[in-house]
Structures are given as C-alpha cells and as structure tokens.
Amino acid sequence: MERIISEQDRIKRAEEVIAKRRGTIPVKDININSNDKHITKLTKIFIQTVSCMCIFGIIYLLMLNNNPIVENIRKVMSQDTDLKKLYDYSNSQINNIVEWINSFNEDSNLEGKIEDVNNEIVENNILENTISNDIEENSSDTGIGGSDENLNLSQDEQDIEYIKSYCSIIVPVCGTVTSSYGKRTPTDIISENHAGVDIGANEGTEIIAAMEGTVELVSSYGDYGNHVKITNGEVSTMYAHCKEIFVNQGEYVAQGQKIAEVGNTGRTTGPHLHFEISRSGRTVNPESIIEI
C-alpha cells in the first residue's frame, strides 16, 4: 500500500538532499546548535555566580577570624574619599609638571651658558698667570730681601748686612788690633789671607762670648791651637790661640759669658786672640761689624 507523504515532509526531504549535495548544514542542525549556544551561556552565568558566591564566602570567613588583611581592607573602605581634595592635588601636580617643562624650555640655551662659564674660567686663568708673572718679575727685580739696593751689593756686603740685622755682636776681649782682616805680607808664621783680626792682650786675659749661641767646636788641633767656635743660625764666631777654654761642645752660652783666656797656642808670634765672624762658612771683616 503506497505511503502518503504530506507536502511539508516532501519539502523537508528535498532540502535535506540539496544540503547534502552542497555540503551545508541542514536546517534542523542549525536549530540544535542554537539551542547549544543558549545552554553554554547559561552555564557561564552559573559558573560566574558560583564563583562570586565562593569569593564572598571566603571574605566572610576571613572577617569572622579577624584576619589582618581584612582589617586593612576595612580601614581603606571606611575612609571617605574627598573628590575635591583629590582633584586639587592632581591639578597641583599637573601644574608643577607644566612649570618644570617651561623652565626646561627656558634653559634650552644651556650649551651657550656652559660656553660662557668656560670663557670666564679661561679669563680667570689668564689673569692668574699675569699676576704670577708680575710677582716673579718683581721678585727677580728686588733680589735678596726684596730690595733693589741688595741686588747691587756684593756677597761680602750682603753677609755683613745680614749679620748686623740678625744678631748682636760685641768685642770679645779688651786689647789692640795687631793684624787686620784680609790680605797681608806672608811669612813663615803669618798667612797671606787673614780670615779674622788679631787682638793683642796679656796671656790669661778673659775672653767673653761675642754673641749668644751653641758651642759647635772645641779643639786644640792645627794652627789655631786651642780654639772654640760658637754658632747662632747662619752666623758663627771663632776664638783661637786660647790658653784655656771653659765651655764644652754642645753647650749653650750667653752673650758676655766667659768662655776662655788669651793664650799663645798654635801658630803665633805672641799672646793674642784670633777672632773671626762668618756667615754660612764665609768670613767677613769683624771691624765692619764691631768697633775694636
């Protein structure tokens, strides 16, 4: 018996055949996928709801246990937010940034300023060099002691001026000059260049220190016989041909202190004191320093 198919079923079968030939999805499949999408959305909503409930549940449990994290959250949430203050603060910070940008733009010629500073340093260096050169020229012009007069003096004259200004010297013994300083007619006993003055006096006459100082040398060796040397800085005094010496090497003596007696020791022609004054080993004429 032939099955009777309705017109509607015939149309559906025709659509299914066409869909199979074209490889497309039938209409009924599309309807099924649409229903699946609705189910997926409902599942997501459910999952999100359950997740929120779990989160709130955890927070609630933490609040019950007085957790410190929750306490901090409470403090933050309990504070009122002043929108006006927040706006004013933000506005002030923005203004500060704008001012900084403007100041940076004003200083855009920084390289020019650095160049000016470098030029000023160079000028200062040139000025310092000029001053230094002037000082050196003045120093070289003035000579020893900063005086043009000293520049024209001989070494002997400079030594005499130095000794006069540096220390006080007095006559070491009472007597008469028997031989002056400088060149003289030599003999077997008398030397050609006399380094001091000979002051004739009786043997045993007291000899005093012509200046204060330290006894640098006490000796009886050589042509000077018994002799003593007293030094004060660059200046030294020598006392030779003594009969006896009353001070020791290294001892400090005062000016006018008795240090020896006139004698006739060493290379002499009679009792006298050979007296020398020197600066840094260079002897000068004692009569240019003191009056004997």
Count of separate structural domains: 2
The assigned CATH architecture of the largest domain is Distorted Sandwich
The CATH topology of the largest domain is what? Answer: Glucose Permease (Domain IIA)
How helical, in percent, are the residues? 40-55%
Task: Please describe what this structure looks like.
Helix content is 47%, strand content 20%. The protein is of the alpha+beta class and 292 residues long. The protein has 2 domains: 1-98, no CATH class; 159-288, Glucose Permease (Domain IIA), CATH 2.70.70. Strands 1, 4, 5, 6, 7, 8, 9, 10, 11 and 12 form a 10-stranded antiparallel β-sheet that branches. A two-stranded antiparallel ribbon has the order 2-3. Strand 7 (226-232) and strand 8 form a beta hairpin. The longest helix is centred in the first third of the chain and has 38 residues, at 27-64. The model is unreliable at 140-147 (pLDDT under 50).
Describe the structure concisely.
The protein has 292 residues and is an alpha+beta fold.
Offer a few descriptive terms.
292 residues, Glucose Permease (Domain IIA), rod-shaped, 2 domains, single chain, alpha+beta
Can you lay out the helices and strands and say which pair or pack?
Layout: H1 7-22, H2 27-64, H3 68-78, H4 83-106, H5 110-142, H6 148-151, H7 155-166, E1 176-179, E2 182-183, E3 193-194, E4 197-200, E5 206-208, E6 213-219, E7 226-232, E8 235-245, E9 252-253, E10 258-262, E11 272-279, E12 282-284
Antiparallel strand pairs: 1-4, 2-3, 4-11, 5-10, 6-7, 6-9, 7-8, 8-10, 8-11, 11-12
